[in-house]
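Note to self: keep these together.
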Amino acid sequence: MTTFTAWKFDTPDGAQKAAEALQSAASDHLVKIVDHAVITWPEGAAKPDMHHSHEDKWRGTGWGAFWGVLFGGLFFVPLLGAAVGAAAGAITKSMAAVGLDDNQLATIREQITPGTSLLCAVTDEGDLDRMGERFHGLHSTLVATNLTEAERSVLMETFG
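Structure:
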């Protein structure tokens, strides 16, 4: 099953540390990373910055477009207002394709503020119990996922 998760960190470098832990878990075959992106918003910066990984070189362009749409939907379209209603509709449709609705996008948008960071990951075949050990102590908050409530509950128990 392909899973989208977005984890918030209360420091600008927390998401990058978690991305390194995620990549380590993938190296140990605990999860398959389809792709991931790190959004950082250092204190004093006017806007956040995003870097995505290009995990799958063959599909990197498609994922780059996905992350661009997500990033634009989170941080630029809300600022532009009604003038870009069609663009907002396209963003909503793109995000719905991975199981994210407008409420989840709004939650992510509200959580990411100056001095924080966000790790967004699209993964397959994760061993949650063993991955939870890798993420222990990183102090993250799950802010969005396409998992069912029961799956989300297991994820929250594992990652605490």
